[in-house]
C-alpha cells in the first residue's frame, strides 16, 4: 500500500482529498494542528504540529507522496520542504490562479506570466499579497523537489464544507428568501467542485509540472437557475443592470459574491485554459450535483451563523424596491 502525507487534510479541500485518498486505498498520515476535524477519519495516523515550527516531527517518516493544501507564505514552506525533500517521493502543492498577471493580452495558461514576488517584504496575506506569496511558495517547491513537484492552480472552489460563504450565498438566498437580486445573466464564470479538485490532486501524483484546475465555464443565468431549482422555496429572480448596481453603491465580489461588473477586467475568473489538467484526468461533476450537495450540507452542517459575505436581506429589499420603482 502506498503512503501519502497530507499537510492539513481536515478542512474543505483537504478533507475532500483525505476522503478521496482513503477511497483509493492510500495509507494516510495527516500532519495538522488538531484545531479542526479531530473527530474525522478514525484510524488514520495523525501527527499534530504547526507546519511553521514543528516540521521536525516528520523527520522519521517516509512517504510516496505528499499533498500540501495549506501553504501560503515562505515561513509555511521553508522548514517543511527541508524536512521532506528526502522523505517524500512526489510533492503536490495546491496553489491558486491568483498567481497570474491578469492584464490585457496576458496568457493565463500554465506558461503565462505570473505576478512579481521580488522585493516582497511581508508575509501578511492580503488581497494584494496573496498571489505574489503563492508565486514564491511555488518557486520554493520547485527548488526543493524539481521534477518530483506538481503545482496545481485552482480557480474558484465550491461544494460541501466550504465555509467561506462566497458561493454558498446563492443557494442560501434561494432557500431562505422570496426574492433574489442578481446581475449579468450572460456573464461566464469558472468553478470547480472541491471533490473534483481532490481527485485531480491524487491523479497528478507522478506528473511533474503545473496544472490549472477550474471548470469549463458556466453563465450566471445557469448558476441562478440551478440554485433556484435546488430548493422547494418559491422565489423569484430580479435581474439588475451592472451599471445600475454600481451606481447604487453595490460592491462587486462582496455585496454580490463572486460577481464582477466588468468581466473583461477579471479574465482569470472566466478565461483560464484547463486542457493540461484534463490530459491527466481532470473531470467535473454537474453544477446541479454540486449545488444540491452544497445545499444539503448548508442545511445540516453549517448552522445558523450569519453569512460572512454578501448584502443583508434588508439591503437587498431596498435595492429591489428601488429597481422596480425606476422608470423603464
End-to-end separation: 67 Å
What percentage of residues falls in helices of 4 or more residues?
25-40%
Radius of gyration: 21 Å
Largest sheet: 7 strands, parallel
Mean pLDDT: 95
Shape by Cα distribution: globular
User: How many helices does DSSP assign?
Assistant: 10
How is the largest sheet built, in terms of strand order?
3-2-1-4-5-6-11
Pick out the low-confidence regions: none
Q: Proportion of β residues?
A: 15-25%
Structural class: alpha/beta
Topology pattern, helix = H, strand = E: EHEEEHEHEEHEEEHEEHEHEEHHH
Number of strands: 15
Describe this structure in words.
The structure is a single chain. Helix content is 32%, strand content 19%. The strands form 5 sheets. A 7-stranded parallel β-sheet has the order 3-2-1-4-5-6-11, sandwiched between helices. The longest helix is centred in the middle third of the chain and has 16 residues, at 130-145. The N and C termini lie far apart (67 Å). It has helices at 13-23, 74-84, 130-145, 169-176, 194-203, 220-229, 242-247, 275-278, 287-302, 313-325, and strands spanning 3-7, 27-32, 45-48, 63-68, 88-94, 149-154, 156-158, 179-183, 188-189, 191-193, 209-213, 218-219, 236-240, 252-253, 256-257. The relative contact order is 0.13. It has 10 helices and 15 strands. With 328 residues, the chain is an alpha/beta fold.
Show the helix and strand layout.
Elements: E1 3-7, H1 13-23, E2 27-32, E3 45-48, E4 63-68, H2 74-84, E5 88-94, H3 130-145, E6 149-154, E7 156-158, H4 169-176, E8 179-183, E9 188-189, E10 191-193, H5 194-203, E11 209-213, E12 218-219, H6 220-229, E13 236-240, H7 242-247, E14 252-253, E15 256-257, H8 275-278, H9 287-302, H10 313-325
Parallel strand pairs: 1-2, 1-4, 2-3, 4-5, 5-6, 6-11, 7-10, 8-13, 14-15
Antiparallel strand pairs: 9-12
